[in-house]
Specification:
This protein is of the alpha/beta class. Helices cover 41% and strands 16% of the residues. It has two domains: 135 residues, Four Helix Bundle (Hemerythrin (Met), subunit A), CATH 1.20.120.420; 196 residues, Translation initiation factor eif-2b, domain 2 (Rossmann fold), CATH 3.40.50. β1 and β2 form a beta hairpin. The radius of gyration is 20 Å and the shape is globular. The model has no long low-confidence stretch (mean pLDDT 97).
């Protein structure tokens, strides 16, 4: 059984998602700077997983700090959190998780002058957040499984599975729960260019769980919808605005337009920590721009002429008008999202 990320005695370990499925390799990070690089370089990815990785990075930096005064530890803590915040801009879980561990740290510093007690508190909360993420993802699966009928064909985009979380996943948790309930399902997975998370990661997870699945190139889903081969679309999310506009891996918006045209229900599955009430609309969500060589190069080989220009936004935003519902750990919410989202908090 694989794990996405794991706290060790004096380090944090990640499965290297860049080399899956050809190789199952784990990378050990012995300090918070290495954890930050692992997040930025996509050793670990997926909004919930990024959030817990950042918290583990902060905890690692605090536990290994040589500062012997609360003031010294505060100054180092501020630097550690700034390094973590600078890793990736779109997934709000990262900022939510860091803010949560900051609050714990600041309260602990007010309650005691014992540096070791502060370190113990930060670590205990980080570990509790890890367990909490697994339980939340399981509930997303249970809630979403009520949408799944026996014999359904499900389309998903990118990877919203266990690799994107601590365990179970978000979108894939729904499929796992449906299978556990004895429902016969079939999953179509978009390859998800340019990083190929669907081909490399989602197919790997589904096949490990023996869930019937078929790989698609990203331009095939419209054909399948037109031929009544897709019953429902379920994807994850990296940030959901207060009005329900949802950012997910690039290509999700295109799928949502096709689903809307063909009257296929389009659901996003995400924990409440992915909902950002401070972001009013999708146009306010920062979109990460990644290296152009992710588009121009596959497995170390160029696929275009030398000097070719490219563009590589890592995410796009699906407007709330194209979203049927959002699956959370507290249930499934429906439009009008301005009202239903706020009812959850």
């Amino acid at each position: 059984m694989f794990y996405t990320l794991k706290w060790e005695t004096d380090s944090v370990s990640f499965i290297d998602q860049r080399v899956l499925p050809l190789e199952e390799k784990y990378i050990k990070c012995s300090d918070y700077q290495q954890v930050a690089v692992a997040i930025k370089d996509m050793v670990v990815r997926g909004a919930p997983a990024i959030g817990i990785a950042a918290v583990f990075g902060v905890a690692l930096g605090v536990v290994k700090s040589k500062k012997d005064t609360i003031q010294g530890l505060k100054e180092e803590f501020s630097h550690i959190t700034s390094v973590m915040r600078a890793t990736r801009p779109t997934a709000v879980n990262l900022f939510w998780a860091i803010k949560r561990i900051e609050d714990v740290f600041n309260i602990s510093c007010l309650e005691t002058n014992d540096v070791n007690k502060v370190k113990e508190k930060v670590l205990s909360v980080a570990l509790a957040m890890y367990d909490e993420d697994a339980n939340i993802n399981k509930m997303i699966g249970v809630n979403g499984s009520e949408l799944i009928e026996d014999g359904m064909n499900i389309l998903t985009h990118c990877n919203a599975g266990a690799l994107a979380t601590v365990a179970y996943g978000t979108a894939l948790s729904v499929m796992r729960a449906a299978k556990q309930q004895g429902k016969k399902i079939h999953v179509y997975a978009d390859e998800t260019r340019p990083f190929l998370q669907g081909a490399r990661l989602t197919m790997w997870e589904l096949m490990k769980d023996e869930i019937p699945c078929t790989l698609l190139s990203d331009n095939m889903s419209g054909y399948l919808m037109a031929n009544n081969k897709i019953d429902i679309v379920i994807v994850g999310a990296d940030r959901i605005a207060a009005n329900g506009d949802s950012a997910n891996k690039i290509g999700t918006y295109s799928v949502s337009v096709l689903a809307n045209y063909h009257k296929v229900p389009m659901y996003f599955a995400a924990p409440l920590s992915t909902i950002d009430l401070k972001t009013p609309e999708g146009c306010d969500i920062p979109i990460e721009q990644r290296s152009l060589d992710e588009v121009r190069v596959i497995n170390g080989k160029k696929i275009c002429p030398e000097g070719a220009n490219a563009v590589n936004p890592s995410f796009d935003v699906t407007p709330n008008s194209l979203i049927t519902g959002i699956i959370t750990e507290r249930g499934i919410i429906y439009p009008p999202f301005n009202e239903s989202i706020r009812s959850l908090f």
